[in-house]
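Appendix B, Record 12. Input sequence as logged:
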Amino acid sequence: MGRSRFPLAPVSLFFLAGAGVLLFFVVLSSITRTTPLRQTYFLSADTSGISGARDVSQWTYFRICGEGNMDCSRSWPNAPVGYAWSKNPTGANLPRKLIGGYGNGTTSEQYFYLWRFGWVFYLLALVFTVFAFLSGFLACFGRLGHAIAGLMSLLALFFHSVGAALMTATFVRMRDEFTRAGRSAHIGVWAFGFTWGAWAAIFIATVLFCLGVRSKSDDHVSSSGSRWGRKRSVRSRRSYDVGNHRVKDEYA
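Logged structural output:
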């Protein structure tokens, strides 16, 4: 019973720790120049000729930077994607669907809310991943610990699924808008890889925590059934003669 349940807890903690590290890489991207933070961004696009914009703009979690995550803006919580250019920007080949009256006249309504909700859910995913990791130590002590850690991990998986989906929708569609406007753009491989790698790690950890709860329950049922089975199977017999007839009497 112990051998089948205990290894699930440390393996789950390993995956949650990995997911947390990957999410921190994305959230802290462009904060320092160390690898892999300087290579991590959601989208890189040609914004040359747009008023108030750099020649190349790269969107990270807290900042909008130039090429190589240099020449960054100051850190903003939940900054509109249109902060890459000035209010009511002018220039040739503008990505019109990205520009609108939101975010001080820089961002369209659709992209303003897409990234606003994506940003918040991404942060909630990180917070609950940390909670799941801390509660995961309880899983080393039994079924209740597995249940608590599994619940935290499931919440982290939910928030991360929504946040990653909104992040993907925002920046993939932004890339397409820049391409349609005749400008080069590409999504950040590192940020997307870290994001979906973290999702896979949280999913695996959630499954393992649930298996820990189930294995404990199955062991209890199995041991209870075997005790009743042995009690019913222990039977004795005796025989005796009654008037030239052999009679067998059974008793438990």
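The chain has six helices and six strands.
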